[in-house]
Structure formats: C-alpha cells, structure tokens
Amino acid sequence: MSDLLAIFGPPESDDEVLDGIASYHPDRVTVLLADADADLADDASAPMRDRLARLLAAIERRTGAVVVGLAGDRSQLLGWRFDRELAARLPLAA
Predict the structure, then answer these.
(1) What order of strands is seen across the sheet that includes strand 3-8?
(2) Residues 15-70: tens digit of each pLDDT
(3) Domain residue ranges of the chain, discontinuous segments joined by +
(4) How many Cβ atoms from other residues are within 10 Å of residue 50's Cβ?
(5) Are 4 and 30 in contact (CB under 8 A)?
(6) What is the pTM of this model?
C-alpha cells in the first residue's frame, strides 16, 4: 500500500499535481486543499465544492486510488504518515 499526500494550491496548478499523482500510482490519496478557509456548507463556497468534486473524481478516475481524507490545513494532519507528499512546483522569481 502506498499513501500519498496531494497538496493543491492555486487552481492553475491542479493539472500539474494530478499528473504527478498519476505518475506515482498510489493506492490511497489524502488531499490537502491549501487556503481552503471557506466553510464548505456555506452557499458562497459553491466554487470551492465544485473544484473539490472535480479533483476527487479526477484522482480516482486517473489513478484508481481511493481518496481517504481531506484537509484544509496542515495542522489537521498531525500524526499522519505518508509515503510521499506531492505539491505543485513554485514558480521561480526572475
């Protein structure tokens, strides 16, 4: 079994992270949606819920992995262990 933490930041980097997840062929994926301060039950968070639904479906469809958890902050994952962590590369300053 391989456990992967997928860290999603700005929506523009979603495809990069999804490609990385697919290349590792994990069995289980936990998603950390950075900067997800929105209350997902609030009507104003519909775009965030839509993005999250697309990401979870894409992970399961492209990798066959099971999404086992969702976090909005790193502190929610204290004590969790992952075989690998994956996030989009930060752009380099010119």
Answers:
(1) 66-71, 28-33, 3-8, 84-87
(2) 999 999 999 999 999 999 876 555 655 666 678 889 999 999 999 999 999 999 99
(3) 3-87
(4) 10
(5) yes
(6) 0.84
